[in-house]
């Protein structure tokens, strides 16, 4: 039996790709601008809503194209207003997206991979093996899902919105999926759609040195570096990519990052681990490493997860650490943990998707095997 041809999803296409798709069905170039506006300014997913297009054209487009966002498997809201979405993609894989609230605005923490290619020992996500990179549609789709949740379509022209920033700090290493991340962020920054300024976007990397300059030159977004240690010996353990790109190379790449200046400083992220990297000597070495770089520090209290091999530094140790950095002339706030009660805090992303998958697998097995019965034996091919 013949099946209907799969429709082309317009979400995640670049301007050029959308123009090519429009031309391929015999439509004029100005239709690209109209579609872009409806998808990324108005947030429309149904062609019937696109009322500036004639009805026959809307019907024609609906036969060939779709505007498909990922599905929300689960939405949780923390007692501190942090919101987390378990996002399911078309192939059944899942990733997590988080809204981090501030007083009058907030940031969406977006994932770039299902799982993570890195194995940072303090990070729960790092214990989940990499499944695959996310596509540009899946990256943009996370932001669109968040906008849906907060009812923030169309794009506010005065900039007044709950979702004001993006941090590429979710599951995965963005610079190991650069093409898709770059394409997605360019869509988000486009002035005729979502129109989020590059100054409101921060990309976090664990130190993929060869891609850092390209990111700065191509995107111009803010850079955050997951530093977490001041010696190669310790960073090799905490952030194993350091074995390939050691501190000397990473610090040099930070010094050369395009667009970094005192008005747009690089952020050094530093998780506070009790008795591991939180000594006064560590703080003083951090000052030495940062000398001459337009940088600020973001000190992160360690967020525990089941089986974690570390503990959070004591308040006293963190205070001493902060004072040394402040006395050295650097801004160094301690990040307020958000969403710990729903496992949405920094370094905790993974558990919800893993837990949901295990529950579904268990339910399927229980439905097939009566209580107390043994599963049927299987042959070498796996047949019962």
Word description of this protein:
The protein is α/β, with parallel strands linked by helices and 384 residues long. It folds into two domains: 8-66, DNA polymerase, domain 1, CATH 1.10.150; 71-356, TIM Barrel (Alpha-Beta Barrel). Helices cover 33% and strands 16% of the residues. The chain has eleven helices and 13 strands. The chain has a nine-stranded mixed sheet, with helices on one face. A two-stranded parallel ribbon has the order 1-2. Strands 7-8 form a two-stranded antiparallel ribbon. A hairpin with a 5-residue loop joins strand 3 and strand 4. Helix 4 packs across helix 5 (178-189). The radius of gyration is 23 Å and the shape is elongated. 40% of the residues are buried.
Q: What would the keywords be for this entry?
A:
alpha/beta; DNA polymerase, domain 1; 384 residues; elongated; single chain; 33% helix; 2 domains; two-stranded parallel ribbon
Ordered list of secondary-structure elements with their pairings:
Blueprint: E1 8-9, H1 15-24, H2 30-41, H3 55-64, E2 65-66, E3 71-77, E4 83-88, E5 94-101, E6 106-109, E7 113-114, E8 132-133, H4 136-150, E9 163-168, H5 178-189, E10 201-205, H6 209-218, E11 222-226, H7 232-238, H8 247-255, E12 266-272, H9 280-290, E13 295-301, H10 315-327, H11 351-368
Parallel strand pairs: 1-2, 6-9, 9-10, 10-11, 11-12, 12-13
Antiparallel strand pairs: 3-4, 4-5, 5-6, 7-8
Nutshell version of this structure?
The protein has 384 residues and is α/β, with parallel strands linked by helices.
């Amino acid at each position: 039996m013949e099946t209907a041809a799969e429709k082309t999803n317009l979400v995640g296409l670049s301007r050029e790709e959308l123009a090519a798709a429009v031309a391929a069905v015999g439509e004029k170039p100005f239709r690209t601008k109209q579609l872009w506006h409806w998808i990324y300014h108005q947030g429309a997913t149904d062609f019937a809503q696109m009322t500036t297009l004639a009805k026959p054209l809307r019907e024609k487009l609906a036969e060939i194209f779709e505007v498909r966002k990922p599905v929300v498997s689960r939405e949780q809201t923390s007692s501190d207003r942090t919101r987390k979405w378990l996002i399911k993609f078309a192939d059944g894989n899942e990733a997590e997206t988080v809204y981090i609230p501030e007083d009058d605005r907030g940031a969406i923490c977006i994932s770039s991979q299902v799982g993570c290619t890195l194995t940072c020992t303090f990070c729960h996500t790092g214990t989940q093996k990499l499944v695959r990179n996310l596509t540009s549609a899946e990256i943009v789709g996370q932001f669109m899902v968040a906008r849906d949740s907060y009812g923030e379509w169309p794009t506010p022209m005065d900039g007044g919105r709950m979702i004001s920033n993006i941090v590429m700090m979710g599951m995965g290493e963005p610079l190991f999926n650069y093409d898709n991340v770059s394409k997605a962020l360019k869509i988000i920054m486009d002035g005729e759609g979502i129109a989020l300024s590059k100054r409101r976007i921060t990309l976090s990397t664990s130190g993929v040195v060869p891609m850092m300059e390209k990111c700065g030159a191509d995107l111009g977004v803010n850079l955050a570096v997951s530093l977490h240690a001041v010696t190669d010996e310790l960073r090799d353990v905490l952030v194993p990519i350091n074995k390939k790109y050691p501190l000397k190379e990473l610090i040099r790449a930070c010094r050369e990052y395009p667009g970094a200046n005192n008005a747009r400083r690089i952020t050094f992220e530093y998780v506070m681990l009790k008795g591991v990297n939180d000594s006064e000597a560590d703080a003083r070495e951090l000052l030495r490493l940062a000398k001459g770089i337009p940088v600020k520090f973001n000190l992160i209290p360690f967020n525990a997860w089941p089986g974690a091999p570390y503990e959070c530094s004591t308040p006293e140790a963190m205070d001493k650490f902060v004072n040394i950095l402040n006395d050295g002339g650097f801004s160094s706030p301690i990040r307020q943990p958000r969403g710990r009660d729903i496992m949405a805090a920094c370094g905790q992303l993974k558990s919800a998707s893993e837990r949901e998958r295990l529950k579904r697998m268990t339910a399927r097995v229980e439905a097939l095997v009566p209580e107390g019965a043994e599963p049927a034996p299987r042959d070498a091919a796996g047949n019962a």
